[in-house]
Amino acid sequence: MIPRYFDLLVLLLCERHRVVTRQEIFDRVWTDVVVSDGALSQAVRTIRRALGDDPRDPQFVRTVARHGYQFVFTAVAEESDEGALHVPAATAAVRLAPVAAPAAADEPPPDRFAPLLDRLLRRAPFTRASDEERREAAEQLLALDTAEALRRLDGLPGHAEARAILRDARWDVPGAGDIALLGSPQPLASIGHVVRLRLRRAARHTSNRWAAASIGGGVAGVAAGVAGGIALWLVPESQARPNVMAALGLVGALAGALGAAGVGAGLAAAEAVARSARTLALTLCGAAGGALAGSLLHVLARAVVSGVFGRDVPVMAGWPEGLVLGAAAGLGYALSTSPLPGGGLAGPRGSARVRTALVTGAACAIAGILLTVAGRHLVASTLDVMASAFEGSDVGLAPLARLLGEQALRPITRGVVSGFEGFLFGAGLAFGLTHRPAR
Asked: Which pTM was predicted?
């Protein structure tokens, strides 16, 4: 039984006087990672199989519909950890599974690999084994002997997919041996199956995480826009009116939500797919998602300006800015969260979550300043360029520039504005991405 499953069994035993909710299980057993409900269901099935329990007539673990689980076996004896183990006579006869009689001298020992390989390969009598049952069989084979399992697997029908399942499951089994794909009989097929397994996992996890990241980025965009509007309204010599706060807040919300959706999807996919080279994977996938979001934002902005106002105004922000910000967000997120032994989506809580948001925000702030040095533009400076094409516009940043000792939007003002904008974007994205959904 892998460590997390054993931790779940211990939790149910210690809290056997009550029903343990699914949310409490996730908070206490999977405290450092966000997993799907299927992971909990698989854990309970593994515990029941280990105990010889029947879910239709449970003697050990009872499911309470829409609530959680309870350990219901009553003959549980507790002893101090000190001294030798003593089994009371009243419970000495209790067994979790029948003890097999000793084999005869001329009778070979039972083959523990064969039924597990049959289940993994979906051979009779396990032709209808579910994906979770095959995964569990793979974990047990890895715990027995990885090399022997691979030796007996090679050459059998369906061995390429089975090897991929073993490769993916080895991260969850402490002490499991290496599983090479390039040296297998069908390396390309095995690699393809591994990619499909992880893409399916990514599709399950990414939807929730990218949505939360998008909301976080949208909220950060609103905050940046409103803060900019307040600054323009209060700065001397500015002609901005109070309603500029609503306008800039709306623009910031749209830009932040779209940018965070792209970057967040890339980071969530990297967490679900990449089991090694995590920092590199997060940086590259964040960059790819940011570049895609930046391109889409550029096209939409140009379409709105030219379609509504009939002017071909240059929109400065685009895929290069998205790529750099996405890469910075991925790097900051990777540096501020710990890789999980079994893979999965990191879900820091409390002060750790705040630290992740601050580090990711700082990385994006640095990226924003570097983009300014390179002559690129983020949302605020793009709005300033666009405002110059419309007489009487209230969103020009010249009043802020004069406040900082410049006559127009020069490097100092652009650096301050872009750094502030990048920090809020990165912090909002990370705070949303690390949201742990209620179960």
From this structure: 0.62
